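Progress note, sequence design subtask.
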């Protein structure tokens, strides 16, 4: 059986993964955007403006704590019964939770029941997100020829900036055109959540139309599914999971803090003074830049290797940490656009190679579990409470310098972590190559002695 599928099926898979991840992350970012703009007033009003905003951002972070649960469940069944079934299930779960947020009563009408129900639905979002990414990237990579994996894997990565672009655009439309001013607070905020049901229907039918991963079909035919994939993963590759999570943490902290919730809130606060709609349109613009450089990074990683692309991306992200807020703090809308341009450049370059790097780090039999759990843990370490931390730092210091230092620290952690893994671009990912995949992926692992540091590219 071929380890990669026909070009027609590869196109269907690429379309299915980018549509699905876009819908998933639209749902996730809609919550983060609403948390920065209105949830403090609607669900946490008795706590006061400052504490209410912290609680609102904390509710964003709580879902990250449940991502590992979603990753464990999706990884277990994805390695046992297949990738496609998990992709459909996570999509439906996320869509149901998001749509129900649009029907929730507020604190004014339901009291403490309202924030409790909000948190429960956010937890369901977290469980879904924990399983979504791993399945999407594996469907893309395991259908792709080895010399085009970076580009193929970039498609599910594109779902994140596309989801943010869609979420910001829809919210900007509501705040600026359909329900401006008090109408957005009264009812307009619900519409982006309710629209999720339409997007889920589209994503569901698209994903049902694609074939199962050829690598998983080989695993199933050979009856090589591990009985308990999680146990095997941590017994044999536990340190690799931790390092993979740290590679993601810096980029995720920057993405969620800067574009997912904190900047819309901070830039529209009295300290800066922009209108909410202006900020949302600017964030949508930044998402488009992020998207373009995410795809470029996937292409670049096929040419020069995953690690070199990461080094360029993290270097650019590092250099932008202080200018990001220097430009925003000018109060100029043009400078806000400039800030998001330079920051999204590095953000995309340090995100595009991730799916490819992760999938080449783990053996076929535990690959779903490995990439999903690493991603989920990296999200906790990085983006879970980044908006909360940033808000607390601004409230404590009265400025944004501490936030920039926080981003610098997180980026450096990820830069060091990616230097510890081997670049295995172009490795055969089928179950037939399980033995070579088991060879250590870390540069200091003695089992890695016969694996070249140079990417094994075939193009």
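Output:
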């Amino acid at each position: 059986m071929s380890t990669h599928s026909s070009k027609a099926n590869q196109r269907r898979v690429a379309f299915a993964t980018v549509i699905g991840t876009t819908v998933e992350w639209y749902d996730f970012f809609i919550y983060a955007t609403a948390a920065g703009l209105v949830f403090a007033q609607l669900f946490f009003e008795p706590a006061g403006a400052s504490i209410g905003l912290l609680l609102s951002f904390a509710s964003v972070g709580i879902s990250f704590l449940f991502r590992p649960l979603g990753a464990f469940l999706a990884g277990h069944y994805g390695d046992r019964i297949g990738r496609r079934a998990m992709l459909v299930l996570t999509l439906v779960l996320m869509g149901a939770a998001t749509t129900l947020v649009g029907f929730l009563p507020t604190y004014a009408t339901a009291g403490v029941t309202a924030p409790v129900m909000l948190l429960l639905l956010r937890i369901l979002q977290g469980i879904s997100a924990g399983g979504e990414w791993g399945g999407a990237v594996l469907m893309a990579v395991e259908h792709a020829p080895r010399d085009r994996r970076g580009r193929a894997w970039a498609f599910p990565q594109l779902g994140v900036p596309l989801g943010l672009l869609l979420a910001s655009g829809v919210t900007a439309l509501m705040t600026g055109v359909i329900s401006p001013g008090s109408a957005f607070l009264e009812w307009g905020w619900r519409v982006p959540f309710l629209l999720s049901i339409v997007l889920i229907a589209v994503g569901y039918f698209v994903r049902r139309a694609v074939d199962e991963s050829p690598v998983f079909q080989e695993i199933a035919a050979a009856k090589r599914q591990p009985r308990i994939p999680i146990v095997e993963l941590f017994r044999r590759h536990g340190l690799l999971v931790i390092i993979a999570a740290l590679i993601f943490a810096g980029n995720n902290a920057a993405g969620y803090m800067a574009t997912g919730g904190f900047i819309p809130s901070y830039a529209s606060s009295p300290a800066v003074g922009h209108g909410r709609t202006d900020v949302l349109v600017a964030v949508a613009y930044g998402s488009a830049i992020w998207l373009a450089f995410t795809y470029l990074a996937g292409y670049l990683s096929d040419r020069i290797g995953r690690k070199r692309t990461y080094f360029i991306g993290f270097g650019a992200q590092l250099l932008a940490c202080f200018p990001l807020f220097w430009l925003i703090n000018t109060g100029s809308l043009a400078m806000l656009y400039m800030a998001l341009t330079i920051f999204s450049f590095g953000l995309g370059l340090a995100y595009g190679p991730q799916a490819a790097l992760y999938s080449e780090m783990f053996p076929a039999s535990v690959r779903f579990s490995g990439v999903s759990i690493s991603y989920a843990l990296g999200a906790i370490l990085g983006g879970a409470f980044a908006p909360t931390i940033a808000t607390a730092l601004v409230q404590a210091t009265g400025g944004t310098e501490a936030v920039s230092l926080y981003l610098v620290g997180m980026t450096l952690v990820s830069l060091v972590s990616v230097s510890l893994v081997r670049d295995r671009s172009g490795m055969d990912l089928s179950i037939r190559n399980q033995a070579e995949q088991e060879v250590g992926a870390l540069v200091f692992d003695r089992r890695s002695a016969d694996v070249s540091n140079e990417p094994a590219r075939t193009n």
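DSSP finds 20 helices and no strands in the chain. Work on this subtask will continue into the next period as scheduled.
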